[in-house]
Every structure is written in structure tokens, then in C-alpha cells.
Amino acid sequence: MDNNGADDEKNIKVWDIGGQSIASEMIDKYIAGAQAALIVYDVTNMRSFDNVQDWLQVVKRVTKNEEKPPHTALVGNKTDLEQKRVVTVEAHNTLAKKHDMMPMYVSAKTGDSVLMLFRQTVADLLKIVLSKADQEADIVVVEGEIQSDAREARRRVDHSQNSNVCNVM
Ligand SMILES: Nc1nc2c(ncn2[C@@H]2O[C@H](COP(=O)(O)OP(=O)(O)OP(=O)(O)O)[C@@H](O)[C@H]2O)c(=O)[nH]1
Ligand SMILES: [Mg+2]
């Protein structure tokens, strides 16, 4: 992250590291000196959640001698597939707490909370406290009537629009 002329603008450089490259010799070069590491898993895939620990170990190994260890976030992706979730919110939060990671959820498909993830990461690095409005600016909230018949409600709700904050069931 660096300044982009104006004081209130920052440039961030992002490297997207594929899951297969955990064994690559190049991996250290991407991670060394990073200010933040966003470790993304699939909430519908338990193996991807188990892999988070391996990625954390890699980040810790590569950055162990650095003055400032990178800010880390635990990112559960595919919140649009809430009905297929296998990794519980409790497991997510427990792991995040254990390793001092920022717990986040996104949907790369709908874009839900993706901008928020980057905004919150940069804010944390700059030690800026975001207002509630800033925090919620990027969250897709579904509004709808509360149905007396739950089955009928489920049928009528578009789950692809669900966010981690507001699930209409
Ligand atoms: N429903 C849904 N599908 C997603 C989402 N994000 C990714 N996918 C799908 O998941 C599959 C894997 O996505 P990729 O972007 O290749 O995953 P990746 O983690 O970058 O994979 P590697 O780079 O190989 O490690 C693709 O079929 C995507 O379309 C999401 O938020 N929701
Ligand atoms: Mg990829």
C-alpha cells in the first residue's frame, strides 16, 4: 500500500495466489514484505477450511523475521450458497480468534462485501475506525416481508442475494 498523491487516497497492490502454489518455491517472494494476507476458503468445502491452517503456517514462516507481521483476515467465500454451507460460523470465528485474524465473509459471485473486505483491511492498517455507514456501504441487504409460512418464504427468497448480515429464511 502506498500514497496516491492525495492524502486520503491509497494504492494497494494485490497478488492472487492460487491454492496449488502452496508448495511452490516462488511463494516466499509473494508473501515476504506483505502488509496483509487475506486467506480465503470456500464455506461449502471443509477441505478448503482445513487448508487455512497450512496457509497461515506459510505466512508465519515467511514473515517470522519481519518487524511488522502482516495483518491477516480469514475470509469465508461463497456466502451466496448459504444453504450449502458446511463450515459453521462458530468454527470460522473460533479459528479467526485463535490466530488473531479479522473474520470476514464475502461472495465473489455476487460481489457481496468484497469491497468491504479491502476497505476494512486498509482501514485497519491505517488504524482508521470506520463509521457504521462506511462498514455497511457494500453489504447487500435483502428486504422482504416476513412470511407466516416458512416454506413459502424460502421459495420466494432469492438466496443468491443473501448476505452474511441479513439472511431471510
Ligand atoms: N457460487 C459461487 N461460486 C464461486 C464463488 N467464488 C468462486 N466460485 C466458483 O468456484 C470455482 C473456483 O473458483 P476459482 O476462482 O477458480 O477459485 P480459486 O480459489 O481462485 O482457485 P485457485 O486459484 O485454483 O486456487 C469456480 O467454479 C467459480 O465460479 C462464489 O462466491 N460463489
Ligand atoms: Mg485463483
UniProtKB/TrEMBL annotation:
Q: Name one GO molecular function term.
A: GTP binding
Native species = Diploscapter pachys
Family, according to the entry, reads as follows: Belongs to the small GTPase superfamily. Rab family.
Q: What is this protein called?
A: Ras-related protein Rab-28
Gene3D superfamilies, per the entry = P-loop containing nucleotide triphosphate hydrolases (3.40.50.300)
Task: Tell me the SUPFAM superfamilies matching this sequence.
Answer: P-loop containing nucleoside triphosphate hydrolases
List UniProt keywords, sorted A-Z: Nucleotide-binding
Going by the entry's taxonomy, the superkingdom of the source organism is recorded as Eukaryota
Against InterPro entries, the record matches this protein to: P-loop_NTPase (IPR027417), Small_GTPase (IPR001806)
